[in-house]
């Protein structure tokens, strides 16, 4: 798919989301969460490019969400909370990244998982600080100093998520085309060559890792702003697995696929949980299996295939 | 001609196996030096020591008068020493053109995050490089869909893209189909001579050695057993018996 078509599809997708959020008010919340998850999944995509799967990225989501929860009582401006929480998350990514960069593949994945579960336990056990599994409730943040309530607050968070999603989609798209992004695939196929060209593979991966932590942090902030209640469950390993699931569902190679996957996933989850409370995880599992077996390009790959067939016909 | 690389009394043992047992070698600027010798003689070890991937237990390697020992491989690359591999090390999910452009980008140190890899300047240089190697027809093919000769040339092209002064090649023709071999070698020699690159290469094919080498060094049990122009070395009865494996009186033929 060429760049122009991709931009068009992106704008069209954004318009559909706005329409949906307008037509069905209760979908605003669901779609805001979906956009937040799409942003997080972009980070997973970067790491997948390098052949690395992190089963612990929910930790960065939770770091940002809890940062918001701790800062918000003192300073309620959403547009300041967002960069603060994102930077804290990215800084944590840099610190932890320096350590996990030494490992690849299963060790990389498991180490991220282990660290995220340590963080989860801390959130759960340090009751005096984090209120354990009860979590922390947030005061209503302000936007540009203005007190918003009800629908207008929901719209503001939705708009923030949409703008962030668009910005990060563009950034990641450009990043992946640049040498630093192209070198990620080089880590997967021939890291030794990178080293022999004088390029440190660990630096290439670290840059992507920090960017992914930053995006996870932005997603986490949106989650905190929209649900206004943070709990340790944000950092639980199933939350990390969910991000990898969405990445594969949407299509592991594409920026738009991350958002397509996230929206489809969230909508399925909401409808299935309402109608088939006992079976929805079974349904998701079966869908993942089918995608892996028959559509390795994910939902985005299927869409591309349909488009190509229509062009050929 | 001046000395570009000078190895003095290199020593390295893997357990009881002496891979380098007092290597003394001067590589002259712009020469093509072939390294021949039986398996396990320490030929690749010499390349690995020069590129910083193995640290000798004793001795010194000087490049333009600068001590290389103790330097990190990446720092050595930046001095202008590149290497190619016995088994081509390509980015197999990228096209040949992208592989070459990656090497150009690496040399420029321009791992800039926001401009595309195939920006006009990089694309032009990569295409020019591939053209010199006769690889342009394969430019848009993925690196995992190439025959061995093309893979080898791409591997070497990526090393040349670094604009090295000294290029170390580990068996540049092994695995290349016999029918393609001389064409590959001729292309290689032409490009390297034009670029003014000094080349040190390990080679098992004596026809190739005879065709392009200025000097030949014979490795044997971690030492240099003989050193001189190919005409002299390849006709030396001792070398023929010990390294090339032909008996006196037999007509020399291409070794496998």
TrEMBL record, chain A:
<dbReference type="Pfam" id="PF02653">
    <property type="entry name" value="BPD_transp_2"/>
</dbReference>
<feature type="transmembrane region" description="Helical">
    <location>
        <begin position="199"/>
        <end position="223"/>
    </location>
</feature>
<keyword id="KW-1003">Cell membrane</keyword>
<feature type="transmembrane region" description="Helical">
    <location>
        <begin position="29"/>
        <end position="48"/>
    </location>
</feature>
<keyword id="KW-1133">Transmembrane helix</keyword>
<feature type="transmembrane region" description="Helical">
    <location>
        <begin position="106"/>
        <end position="123"/>
    </location>
</feature>
<dbReference type="InterPro" id="IPR001851">
    <property type="entry name" value="ABC_transp_permease"/>
</dbReference>
<feature type="transmembrane region" description="Helical">
    <location>
        <begin position="78"/>
        <end position="99"/>
    </location>
</feature>
<keyword id="KW-0812">Transmembrane</keyword>
<feature type="transmembrane region" description="Helical">
    <location>
        <begin position="7"/>
        <end position="23"/>
    </location>
</feature>
<feature type="transmembrane region" description="Helical">
    <location>
        <begin position="155"/>
        <end position="178"/>
    </location>
</feature>
<keyword id="KW-0472">Membrane</keyword>
<protein>
    <submittedName>
        <fullName>Branched-chain amino acid ABC transporter permease</fullName>
    </submittedName>
</protein>
<feature type="transmembrane region" description="Helical">
    <location>
        <begin position="279"/>
        <end position="303"/>
    </location>
</feature>
<dbReference type="InterPro" id="IPR043428">
    <property type="entry name" value="LivM-like"/>
</dbReference>
<feature type="transmembrane region" description="Helical">
    <location>
        <begin position="55"/>
        <end position="72"/>
    </location>
</feature>
<feature type="transmembrane region" description="Helical">
    <location>
        <begin position="243"/>
        <end position="267"/>
    </location>
</feature>
Automatic annotation (TrEMBL), chain B:
<dbReference type="InterPro" id="IPR003593">
    <property type="entry name" value="AAA+_ATPase"/>
</dbReference>
<dbReference type="InterPro" id="IPR027417">
    <property type="entry name" value="P-loop_NTPase"/>
</dbReference>
<keyword id="KW-0813">Transport</keyword>
<keyword id="KW-0547">Nucleotide-binding</keyword>
<dbReference type="GO" id="GO:0005524">
    <property type="term" value="F:ATP binding"/>
</dbReference>
<keyword id="KW-0067">ATP-binding</keyword>
<protein>
    <submittedName>
        <fullName>ABC transporter ATP-binding protein</fullName>
    </submittedName>
</protein>
<dbReference type="InterPro" id="IPR051120">
    <property type="entry name" value="ABC_AA/LPS_Transport"/>
</dbReference>
<feature type="domain" description="ABC transporter">
    <location>
        <begin position="5"/>
        <end position="246"/>
    </location>
</feature>
<dbReference type="Pfam" id="PF00005">
    <property type="entry name" value="ABC_tran"/>
</dbReference>
<dbReference type="InterPro" id="IPR003439">
    <property type="entry name" value="ABC_transporter-like_ATP-bd"/>
</dbReference>
């Amino acid at each position: 798919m060429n760049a122009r078509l991709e931009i068009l599809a992106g704008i069209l997708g954004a318009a559909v989301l706005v329409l949906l959020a307008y037509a069905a008010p209760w979908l605003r919340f669901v779609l805001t969460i979906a956009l937040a998850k799409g942003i997080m999944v972009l980070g997973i995509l970067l790491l997948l490019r390098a052949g690395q799967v992190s089963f612990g990225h929910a930790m960065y989501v939770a770091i940002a969400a809890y940062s918001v929860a701790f800062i918000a009582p003192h300073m309620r401006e959403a547009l300041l909370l967002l960069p603060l929480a994102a930077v804290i998350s990215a800084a944590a990514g840099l610190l932890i990244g320096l350590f996990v960069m030494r490992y690849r593949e299963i060790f990389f994945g498991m180490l991220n998982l282990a660290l995220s579960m340590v963080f989860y336990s801390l959130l759960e056990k340090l009751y005096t600080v984090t209120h354990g599994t009860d979590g922390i409730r947030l005061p209503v943040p302000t936007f540009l100093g203005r007190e918003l309530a009800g629908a207008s607050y929901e719209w503001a968070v939705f708009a923030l998520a949409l703008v962030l999603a668009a910005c990060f989609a563009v950034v990641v798209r450009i990043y992946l085309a640049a040498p630093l992004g192209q070198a990620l695939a080089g880590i997967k196929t021939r890291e030794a060559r990178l080293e022999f060209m004088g390029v440190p593979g660990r630096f290439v991966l670290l840059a992507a890792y920090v960017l992914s932590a930053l995006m996870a942090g932005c997603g986490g902030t949106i989650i905190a702003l929209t649900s206004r209640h943070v709990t340790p469950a944000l950092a639980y390993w199933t939350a990390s697995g969910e991000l990898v699931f969405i990445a594969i569902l949407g299509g592991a190679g594409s920026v738009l696929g991350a958002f397509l996957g996230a929206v489809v996933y969230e909508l399925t989850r909401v409808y299935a949980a309402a109608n088939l409370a006992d079976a929805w995880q079974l349904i998701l599992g079966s869908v993942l299996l089918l995608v892996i077996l028959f559509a390795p390009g994910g939902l985005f790959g299927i869409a591309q295939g349909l488009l190509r067939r229509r062009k050929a016909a | 001609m001046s000395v570009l690389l000078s190895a003095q009394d290199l020593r390295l043992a893997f357990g009881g196996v002496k891979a380098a047992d007092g290597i003394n070698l001067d590589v002259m600027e712009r020469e093509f030096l072939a390294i021949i010798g039986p398996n396990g003689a320490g030929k690749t070890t010499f390349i690995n020591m020069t590129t910083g991937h193995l640290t000798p237990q004793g001795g010194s390697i000087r490049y333009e008068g600068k001590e290389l020992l103790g330097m990190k491989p990446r720092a050595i690359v930046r001095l202008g020493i590149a290497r190619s591999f016995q088994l081509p090390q390509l980015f197999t999910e990228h096209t040949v053109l992208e592989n070459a452009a990656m090497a150009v980008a690496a040399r420029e140190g321009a791992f800039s995050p926001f401009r595309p890899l195939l920006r006009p300047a990089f694309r032009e240089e990569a295409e020019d490089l591939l053209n010199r190697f006769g690889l342009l027809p394969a430019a848009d093919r993925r690196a995992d869909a190439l025959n061995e000769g093309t893979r080898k040339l791409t591997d070497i092209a990526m090393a040349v893209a670094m604009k090295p002064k000294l290029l170390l090649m580990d068996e540049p023709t092994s695995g290349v189909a016999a029918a393609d071999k001389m064409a590959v070698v001729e292309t290689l020699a032409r490009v390297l001579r034009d670029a003014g690159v000094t080349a040190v290469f390990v080679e098992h094919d004596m026809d190739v050695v005879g065709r392009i080498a200025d000097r030949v060094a014979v490795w044997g049990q971690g030492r240099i057993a003989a050193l001189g122009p190919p005409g002299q070395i390849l006709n030396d009865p001792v070398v023929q018996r010990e390294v090339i494996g032909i008996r006196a009186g037999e007509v020399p033929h291409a070794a496998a």
